[in-house]
């Protein structure tokens, strides 16, 4: 296969240079999944996959979540295209998808279709590398701690209106408690943090806030982060189980349009 793999940074991400035909194949999908698990992020610049090709690749890499149109979700602030557009403001904060579930999604595939002239870059932070690099005293301090995760907390932090209707919608997904340090079946460990993280269970609130802020600042240092400057046709895939992500704010009327497919989770938080 014509398949060049180039590291994006020392700690996160690889660029794949290949054609759509090579990628959308059993061998190509297996290679992408292998690199994804090892590096957290896979970028294929300008490949220009159609929705059908993106769905085919997604189905080869895992099990596609039923959302949007045939499994393709339109990520846009245009309410005529996405009825839940208001809640996308939450994507401007560092987060891990699915902390309100027992089993978070495995990965997401995102294609750039229409870009904003201002903002809209996407950043990714490797929570495996961030945990591994923590000082031993911090690892000992956070061992065994549990954190409550709340959709309502993250939406308020993102500036989404806490209307009675929205509050009722947020309450439909009750708060979840997860270990602060996730020990994966592979033996790797990662931090379960981000804008959904409300508080450390049983800890004084001021101390809890300070600890979670410190860990988020540590994890999102430039040495653990890859920042993607989009061009139309780019495909970015990230391992949601070990990577935080956020989009840089962009104008609501920018017309920015991304097409996302999501792979169902394969491993519960532990």
What topology emerges from the helices and strands here?
Layout lengths: L3 E4 L6 E4 L2 H4 L2 H14 L1 E4 L6 H11 L11 E3 L31 E8 L7 E5 H6 L3 H7 L3 E4 L1 H7 L6 H8 L4 E4 L1 E3 L5 E3 L5 E4 L4 H15 L5 E4 L6 E5 L3 E5 L9 E7 L7
Parallel strand pairs: 2-3
Antiparallel strand pairs: 1-2, 3-13, 4-15, 5-13, 5-15, 6-12, 6-14, 7-8, 7-11, 9-10
- CATH level-1 class: Alpha Beta
Mean pLDDT: 95
Helix content range: 25-40%
The stretches of 5 or more residues where confidence is low (pLDDT under 50) are: none
Describe this structure as you would to a colleague.
The chain is α+β, with helices and mostly antiparallel strands and 270 residues long. It has one domain: 4-Layer Sandwich (Double-stranded beta-helix), CATH 3.60.130. It is 27% helix and 25% strand. The strands form 4 sheets. The chain has a 7-stranded mixed beta sheet with strand order 1-2-3-13-5-15-4. Helix 2 (26-39) packs across helix 3 (51-61). The longest helix is centred in the C-terminal third of the chain and has 15 residues, at 205-219. It is globular and about 55 Å long. The model has no long low-confidence stretch (mean pLDDT 95).
């Amino acid at each position: 296969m014509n398949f060049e793999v180039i590291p994006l940074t020392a700690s996160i991400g690889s660029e794949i240079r290949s054609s759509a035909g090579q990628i959308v194949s059993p061998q190509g999908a297996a290679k992408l999944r292998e690199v994804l698990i090892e590096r957290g992020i896979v970028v294929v610049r300008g490949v220009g996959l159609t929705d059908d090709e993106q769905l085919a690749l997604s189905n080869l890499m895992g099990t596609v979540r039923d959302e949007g149109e045939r499994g393709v979700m339109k990520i846009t602030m245009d309410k005529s295209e996405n009825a839940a557009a208001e809640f996308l403001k939450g994507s401007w904060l560092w987060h891990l998808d699915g902390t309100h579930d027992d089993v978070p999604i495995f990965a997401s595939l995102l294609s750039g279709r229409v870009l904003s002239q201002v903002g809209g870059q996407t950043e990714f932070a490797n929570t495996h590398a961030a945990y591994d690099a923590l000082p031993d005293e911090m690892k000992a301090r956070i061992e065994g701690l549990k954190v409550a995760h709340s959709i309502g907390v993250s939406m308020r932090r993102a500036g989404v209106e806490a209307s009675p209707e929205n509050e009722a919608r947020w309450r439909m997904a009750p708060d979840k408690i997860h270990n602060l340090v996730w020990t994966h079946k592979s033996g790797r460990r990662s931090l379960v943090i981000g804008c959904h993280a409300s508080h450390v269970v049983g800890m004084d609130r001021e101390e809890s806030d300070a600890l979670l802020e410190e860990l988020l600042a540590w994890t999102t240092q430039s040495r653990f982060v890859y920042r993607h400057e989009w061009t139309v046709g780019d495909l970015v895939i990230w391992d949601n189980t070990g990577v935080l992500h956020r989009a840089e704010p962009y104008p609501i009327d920018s017309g920015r349009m991304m097409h996302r497919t999501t792979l169902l989770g394969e491993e519960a938080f532990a």
